[in-house]
Amino acid sequence: MTKEAIKAKELSPLKRIGNFQEVTLAYGEEEALEEAKRCLQCKNPVCISGCPVEIDIKKFIYQITQEDYKGAYFTIKEKNNFASICGRICPAEYQCRKTCVLTKTGEPFASPEAINIHFLERFAGDYGIEHNLQPTVNRISNTVTLGPKPEIPKVVVVGSGPAGLCCAGELARCGIKVVIFESLHKPGGVLRYGIPIFRLPQDVLEAEIDYLKTLGVEIVTNIVIGRAKSLEELRREFSAVFLGLGAGVPYFLNIKGENLCNIYSANEFLTRVNLMGAYKFPEFHTPVNIGKKIIVIGGGNTAMDAARVALRLQKMNKKKPDVRIFYRRSEVEMPARRLEIVHAKEEGLKFEFLVQPIEFKGNSKGWLGKIKSLRCKLGELDSSGRRRPVALPGSKFNMACDMAIIAVGLGANKILTSVTRELEVDKWGDIIVNSVTMETSIKGVFAGGDIVGGEGTVIEAMSMAKKGARSIIKYLSS
Ligand code: SF4
After folding, report:
1. Distance, CA 398 to ligand 1 centroid (Å)?
2. Out of 14, 345, 378, 406, which residue is the most buried by the measure of CB atoms under 10 Å away?
3. Ligand 1: which atom is nearest the Cα of residue 117?
């Protein structure tokens, strides 16, 4: 019988719920070697097909078995600039681990026996950061055939989230000058404002961003493209444009009472905590008002993150932890990473499955007091391939709560697209691109990541950004 993968050590639930320390700890060298040696080094390494950026998984794992950690780091870097980030937050159980030959056929997620590829990636990525391993830059002359005036082209990337950073890295590695414009005061996009530091520590994000700076990428913060500068101006000033604008506009439930006090979108809540340091109040000046009974609505990673952050803030504010997730389907349909669900349960989060809120009710002063909901059952499959929730007649119930966080998805930010008529968008406001080249309707303008739709994972955004970077290089050579 095949042994299960080596588990990474974790902070115990009791030790972690009163702070923001990283929950999953890195493999030590011994654990990494033991896990790497479990890899069968398959003749046909099917795990690679599960990686959106096609890392040579078999090769980097082999290098780890040989204690060639530097080699493993550079093997990953060939395809993925952000090993330490992806090693921490990629949904490996749906991707590379699921396609690993050690996953049993027909399993909805990776089997426990599948190689812990993401933990090995994290091990190699952290090794690279700790040893300050510098990448090699392929000079531009090797990549782009310059015209009679051999000026090095300058590309602008709008947005410094996963897509923007990845595209910038790919271009800079070819010696292309890249400037990133970011609207917030710190770069990182959703990696900074959306993912709590107990999943992705800021020093890891800083190290990955510093790596881009060593490649010559310039990052300009506090500039909103579409207001401070138009796309037309960018096109005049730069040889090509990549739009990695992300999807930062939260969806709401559009039900009665949604404007009551103490109802947050998960986006605002997480931004206040992660980017604005609310968990360090009064050292940072942007507190959040934490309730005694909190309900988080949604079943994705953002819902898990918001709920686990809320629980920690209750504990840190000497309140009895009481956070509940409302999700309209059952656990197996939850889009959140399995590990996050396990961690959330260990930390004491409560779950109400098959529940659909229909009204927020407040007190006379306009503060949230309870949520009215319906119970549901699962019906036919919908367009997402998941069974549709169907409300059960006569199943209304109320649940008291003084704070709610809505985490039901994000849509396109339209600041730039609304003032750029030539940029074609679909009915949701996502930029329409050629899915192979990532070209938009405007020549020389490319786009990728959440602003063009898709699954919304970091690695998928990076996969699009890589395609966009390849097309930009081709465009600059033409
Ligand atoms: S990670 Fe899994 S699929 Fe990939 S080479 Fe190793 S055993 Fe084979």
Report:
1. 49
2. 406
3. 1
User: What's the topology of domain 13-130?
Assistant: Fumarate Reductase Iron-sulfur Protein; Chain B, domain 2 (1.10.1060)
The dotted CATH code for 250-409 is: 3.50.50.60
The protein residue with its alpha carbon nearest to ligand 1, atom 2, reads 100
Nearest atom of ligand 1 to the alpha carbon of 114: 2
Residue with tokens 């699954």, as numbered in its chain: 455
Per-domain residue ranges of the chain: 13-130, 142-248+412-477, 250-409
Query: 175: pLDDT confidence band, cut at 50, 70 and 90?
Result: confident
Interval between CA 92 and ligand 1 midpoint (Å)? 13
Residues 6+ apart with CB under 8 A from 208: 81, 82, 84, 85, 129, 165
Mean pLDDT of the chain: 93
The sign of the dihedral angle between the CA atoms of 94, 19, 352, 7 is: positive
Residue-level pLDDT at 141: 45
142-248+412-477: CATH number: 3.50.50.60
Phi first, then psi: give them for residue 390, nearest 5 degrees: -120, 125
